[in-house]
Design goal:
By secondary structure, the protein is an alpha/beta fold. It contains 16 helices and eight strands. It has two domains: 8-293, Aldolase class I (TIM Barrel, Alpha-Beta Barrel); 357-408. Helix content is 43%, strand content 11%. The structure holds zinc ion.
Length: 418
């Protein structure tokens, strides 16, 4: 069905594609805070990890609980869908649904000639690929999944006719979205717009743009593709990561995609971006993720880089001081910037793996949080000790707040069982 006004929503994959990146990782508590900050930002879905991986289970179940009513505090996350990534293999899908509380799945299988020949070594025909995908969607829906998307890995190097067939078969089997994966970052804004526009018209299914940055085009491709999908009458979903972290040269940066949809010459004039998105949360999430990964934000990062609103040269500084819009395309307040950050230069008290009661009480006093009784304090202390061990870094305000208000779920997500 063609909608009268299609929308562009965001499916962030920082906690899956971002975290599977070589050399870097996140603790389960950090992943949880990222899900929470994505929810505050109005992101539609967080692809939160791998339900089949045993060390993800406690984290997944605790996070799904955090989206549901909790008697005392209400749900931590109000709108966001939490999804898991799985191979498009019916047996994997059944396990994911029976072993975790995850109820949104993205099911992935390779579709390109290159991968069919050189990854699967000719084991599967194109018909086999479609059958496996259809069987996995059927298993998802019969097993209780609320939504299931189908991902064509290496879509940008796949024959267009086969992609249309794949997307159509997915829709007929009950898939909610088709993910066009530019796995190697091979597309350009023109090629991707043409291809996804055709798929949207022919297969009549909402489309996700999953773009990598090997040619520096991930943001441009994602936004161009999403607009083309909307112009073809279908909803579009952009896969992003915070700060563009991802395999090799990275994924499409969340904040840059939003900026392009709000402020670029042509796309900025469209009205497709969901009104739920709150750009003012950008500064907070970008800095949280940079610290969690231990990967600093480049100084020239759009919107959130240290130099994004910095001027030194005579003509620029003079122009910016006369009127900010002489040299600034958008306002720093729009990204949640502008506050002065105080950094203590005297005594510092932290709580962590070796912390005790009075240090803990001092730290929580700084957040205006006191303990109801000794038991509450002891439980919080124990969770802070373990959380600090997992993070290997001082706990942030968000982490301390989460531990204090949702100890039951934090205990579960910190528990890793094989
Ligand atoms: Zn990817």
């Amino acid at each position: 069905m063609v909608k009268s006004m299609p929308t562009i929503e965001f499916i962030d994959v920082t906690n899956r594609d971002g975290e599977q990146t070589a050399r870097i990782s996140l603790s389960k508590l950090q992943k949880t805070v990222i899900n929470w900050l994505l929810d505050e930002m109005g992101v539609y879905q967080s692809e939160m990890g791998f339900p089949l991986n045993p060390h993800e289970r406690g984290y997944i179940n605790a996070n799904v609980d955090l989206t549901q009513d909790d008697s005392e505090n209400g749900p931590l996350m109000k709108r966001i869908q939490l999804s898991g990534w799985s191979r498009a293999v019916a047996g994997d899908v059944e396990k994911a649904l029976s072993q975790t509380k995850i109820r949104h799945l993205n099911l992935s299988i390779s579709t390109s000639e290159q991968m069919l020949t050189w990854k699967f070594r000719g084991k599967f025909s194109k018909e086999d690929i479609i059958k496996m995908m259809v069987d996995s969607v059927t298993a998802a829906k019969q097993g209780g999944a609320i939504t299931a998307g189908v991902n064509a890995e290496d879509a940008s190097r796949t024959d267009l006719g086969f992609l249309i067939e794949f997307a159509q078969a997915g829709r007929e089997a009950g898939a909610d979205r088709f993910r066009y994966c530019d796995t190697l970052g091979h597309d350009d804004p023109m090629s991707i717009s043409e291809r996804v526009g055709t798929i949207a018209r022919e297969a009549q299914i909402p489309i996700e743009l999953h773009c990598h940055n090997d040619l520096g085009l991930a943001v441009a491709n994602s936004v161009a593709g999403a607009v083309a999908v909307c112009e073809a009458g279908q909803d579009a979903f952009i896969n992003t990561t915070v700060n563009g972290i991802g395999e090799r040269a990275g994924n499409a940066d969340l904040v840059s995609c939003i900026l392009a949809l709000k402020y670029s010459a042509k796309w900025g004039k469209t009205d497709y971006i969901t009104p739920q998105i709150d750009l003012t949360k950008s500064w907070k999430i970008a800095n949280y993720v940079a610290n969690a990964f231990g990967v600093p934000i480049p100084i020239n990062q759009p919107g959130v880089g240290a130099n994004a609103f910095a001027h030194e040269s005579g003509i620029h500084a003079d122009g910016a001081l006369k009127d900010r819009h002489n040299y600034e395309l958008y306002d720093y307040e729009a990204l949640g910037r502008g506050e002065k950050i105080e950094i203590p230069t005297g005594r510092v008290i932290t709580t962590g793996a070796h912390g005790g009661a009075s240090g803990l009480e001092y730290v929580y006093n700084q957040l205006d949080l006191g303990f109801a009784d000794d038991e509450h304090m002891r439980e919080t202390l124990q969770l802070c000790q373990i959380a600090n061990l997992h993070n290997q870094a001082p706990l942030t305000r968000e982490e301390l707040w989460l531990i204090y208000h949702y100890p039951k779920q934090v205990r579960e997500l910190l528990t890793v069982i094989l």
